[in-house]
Structure prediction request, 545 residues.
Amino acid sequence: MTQTVMEPEQDSPPNTSSLNADAFEPVAVAFVCNWCTYTAADLAGTSRLTYPDNVRLVRVMCTGMVDPQYVIKAFLEGADAVLVSGCHPGDCHYINGNYKARRRIKLLKQILPRFGIDAERLRLTWIGASDGIEFAKTMTRFVEEIRGLGPCQARLQPVI
Amino acid sequence: MIASIQTKDHSITRTLQDFFAGMLKTGAADAVLVPSRMSDSPYVKPCLIASYDRLDRTVPLGPGFFVNAGPMMSRLTRTRTGSTLVAWLRPCEIRAFVELTKLRQGAREEVVIIGMDCPMALSRTDYDDWAGQGNEMSDDVEKWIQTVYRKPATRVDAWPVSRACQVCDAPHPVNADVSVMLLGGDLDREIALRADTEKGEKLLAEMDLSEGQEPERRKALLADLETERTEAFQAMDEEMRDQTGSIESLNRFFSACVNCYNCRSVCPVCYCKECVFNTDAVAYAPTQYLSWADKWGQVSLPNDTVFFHLTRLAHIGCTCVGCGQCTLACPSHIPVSDLFISVTRNARKAFDYVPGRNDAEPLPLSVFQESEFTDIVGMGNKEAT
Prediction:
């Protein structure tokens, strides 16, 4: 009887070995709200739509609970890009969470570029629950754009 | 309304002490908050004084800035007392207190804020040096006052003032009840006070003072200061972009940081009652550390150093009042305020926000519009709301 050894998932040896864009696989983290975007992701799945597996989804109840520090932590842990996605303004399950998220992301976009994390690496989108197609399209586009930007330099060394 | 206090015995300190004594005697104030020594040591801290004969140790004006009185004001006003408090505050302390009132961590109703053109502050080691000159401290203080108000400069004798002071864009009282107009004043003769609110007028009226006027040179001095400080800020901003423009350089900038969180403790606008860095959110399992060591090759301990500073930066992103306490308190002499002031003064432009200038101006992250910042939403060409 043979035993199969499970290799730990090669989540991150940071891909510093190659400057060749082809070899670079972006790591994207998406904070998606339970009621809208996550549901859209689910719909994309049941519809058998495909989108790149570079995106790691983190389900939150509302984009309004995405503290700036989650975004910062994601970048410091080696994410090349972060997406925050939730309900369209006016449709938030908790009425105004997405408005707060918008302001927080606006602030983060003033701060992160100061440290070499390009503002383009942080995105905010509104994707409704029935928008499975939009979700898949957005994720695909997102990953391709980040592939073009290259690895985030935060990922290239340990952060103290 | 502008009033004037006649300077007595060539001592601005004693003149101001008498001024406070007067308001305690007449009952215009039930208590005053003013920097004071508590012993023979030269260190001053905000002191709450309720009796007119306990003012002899106070140092209303001087280079010692060991505590931003903003959060102290919060402690004194978070519930009503029925007593009138007169608070003698630096401009950055006023800004801090105002920001805290926006969070309902304090209130202005029972307070009369007297702000002064600011005497600037020295670093801890420079203060020790300054105080250790071997003279009577009161003489040193008077000399300091005369020097900084005749012509403010980035150095006073042998000592450079704290960098946060060097770039402070509002070294005069804004949003106070009374402004003490010291810059350019003939302080050997008189001190001019201007009432900025009804409350301030009422206080000055009760003190039975003669009429005064703004020192002639004050406006010009303030204009010069503004130019100088704008330039100094731009230089500091450049420096910070240079020194922290990448994660690698951030690592270097904070390499001496030991996560003591002094900067957080002394920050007047770090307002959370329980900081996330004190919670289980950062109580990682030992296996997590091993996993990080595996992933990154090494984990410097304590970890989350840059994470802490960037998080704090994002949390107080629009409310930093530029007091510089963080740098003054850092045991590793990291110029934290250089970074925080540079980043926040730019970041808050996105919201057209200036902390402390207006009680009614809500904190940017506590309000929102139906439609705003459409530029940051979406993947680019798509129409966004």
Q: What stands out?
A: Chain B has two domains: 2-223, 225-366. Chain B touches chain A through 51 residues (CB under 8 Å). Residues 218-244 of chain B form the longest helix (27 residues).
